[in-house]
Amino acid sequence: MFKLLVSTFCLVSFFVSSMAQHAPNIGIGPELGLPSGNFANVSGVGLGASLKIDVPVSANFALTLHGGFMNFFGKHNYLQNVKDFTYLPVKAGLKYQLSESFYAEGQIGAGFPLNDGQKTLLVWAPGFGNVFKISGKNRLDLGIRYEGWTGKNDQVVVLSQSSNTKGFLGIRFAYLFNFN
């Protein structure tokens, strides 16, 4: 798993260094996940961190690679004792600049489990965000997305669970490094 992530990031770094006309951005920061629908029955909140690389291919389009760590804390009470959902989500996608700082993006990938009894899940995430200039080349990226993790896990049995998708509102606040 770790070798796959390192290999992917090395490949993207090589690709990025070969693109002379557009400078890539790398963002690193914390993530917050707010479960929705039936997923809120088994987890109240998720916390994580991620690294995201944007490789511009034109003035308004960029390819993205997003990898990180996400843990959704299982609910514990007298009726249920749900274990945490801990995953390494890896996604690739497209980002479109709607204005100088506002963007929309879509990503798809896989969520690799770190806990026993969990399976690899299909991950998909449409979202939007805004880049805020702080000073000079320093910038912050605030992204909001709906993210779905689709697939079955043996670990969770909820009476009202009629879907195999664990959906949540994802909020990412990252510091951007520009290699210009």
Task: Provide a concise account of the structure shown.
With 180 residues, the protein is mainly β. The protein has one helix spanning 2-17, and strands spanning 25-35, 43-56, 61-74, 85-97, 102-113, 121-135, 138-150, 165-178.
The number of domains is 1
Class inferred from helices and paired strands:
mainly beta
Unreliable parts:
156-161
The CATH topology corresponds to Porin
- How much beta, percentage-wise? over 45%
SS field, number of helical segments = 1
Averaged pLDDT: 85
Protein name: Outer membrane protein beta-barrel domain-containing protein
Signal peptide: 1-22
InterPro entries: OMP/PagP_B-barrel (IPR011250)
Keywords: Signal
Protein topology:
Elements: H1 2-17, E1 25-35, E2 43-56, E3 61-74, E4 85-97, E5 102-113, E6 121-135, E7 138-150, E8 165-178
Antiparallel strand pairs: 1-2, 1-8, 2-3, 3-4, 4-5, 5-6, 6-7, 7-8
Description:
This protein is 9% helix and 59% strand. It has one helix and eight strands. The protein is elongated, with a radius of gyration of 17 Å. It has one helix at residues 2-17, and strands at residues 25-35, 43-56, 61-74, 85-97, 102-113, 121-135, 138-150, 165-178. The longest helix is centred in the first third of the chain and has 16 residues, at 2-17. It has a single domain (2-178), classed as Porin (Beta Barrel). It comes from Pedobacter endophyticus. Residues 1-22 form the signal peptide. This is Outer membrane protein beta-barrel domain-containing protein. Keywords: Signal.
